[in-house]
Amino acid sequence: MTYKLHMLNEQGIPSLINGVDSPKDWLKKRSDIFKRWQDMIGKLPERVPLDFTIHAEIKEDGFIRQHVTYNTADADTVTAYLLIPKGAEGKELPALLALHGTDEMGKDSISTNNAKHFKNYATELVKRGYVVLAPDALTAGERIKTGEKPFHNAYFYRDFPQYSSITAKNLTDHRHGIDLLESHRFVDRNRIGAIGHSFGGYNAYYLAGIDARVKAVVTSCGFSMFTGDYRPQRWADRDWYTHFPKLTPMIAEGDIPFEFHEILALVAPKPMFNWSGQSDPIFPHWKSIASGLHNVYQLYEKLGYHDRFTSLLGAEGHDFPPHIRESAYQFLDKWLDHNVNF
To answer: pTM to 2 decimals?
Structure first.
């Protein structure tokens, strides 16, 4: 199944609730969406047993910062900060995987004083009582390959030919991050969430859509749509960061295998918080983005979980402003404060 992009631009996006009159109907439709998604990104490899090393530990104001590494599939290693609240001893706390945006500093851009535009959500959340794991994505932070530029990933497709997409690699690495969190003695394994901005935002909801252990998700300026996008080929082959190589010949013909609100809907009915800005220069097509988000809300409403989906749209740009972060944190506080059966 494919869509003609010009038809979506003319007639509107496919409805998620069309033909969905029961949870069983949604599971059937979800299965079709997931298959199309998996066909594009490729299957993920089996997870490997956790191997976790603490390289350094520093006492910060209100928390402990550990510089850690943990293994992932394909004999690869992820570098990260593990942030542990002061007074965690003897407790089982909620935890978050905090994913950074398109910043060459990687984990440092959201969890240190180097955070740009005050997007230090990892640090703010550990001070709120969460155990937070902030990993470097491949091509950023300590995982920039020697001789390569940040977020230039052509080498990845040469070094890891077993992957159809770097998206599958990111998801593989993030699932191993969840392994670390759920095995940690200070973490309540039933209260793990994900949060991210921009690049980290869409990786957060991708992860929540495929991993049942992620119980709630926050995405900031990470949701886009093909419909209304003046350069939808951004997701296909390019000189900088290629997300989905298999999309390249399709998009050249004006075809798309899914719309992104369908991928966002894979998260349903888990609690999900989305923030998008009308002045976002990266994803400026806010009208189609808003349409996609409303469609996802209609699905949550149809399934009887309208209170689990919060979508905010404001006049701001590609940022995660303080008042929006506070709203997101309150959302996580609510949904990760106790067990929710999904």
So the answer is: 0.96
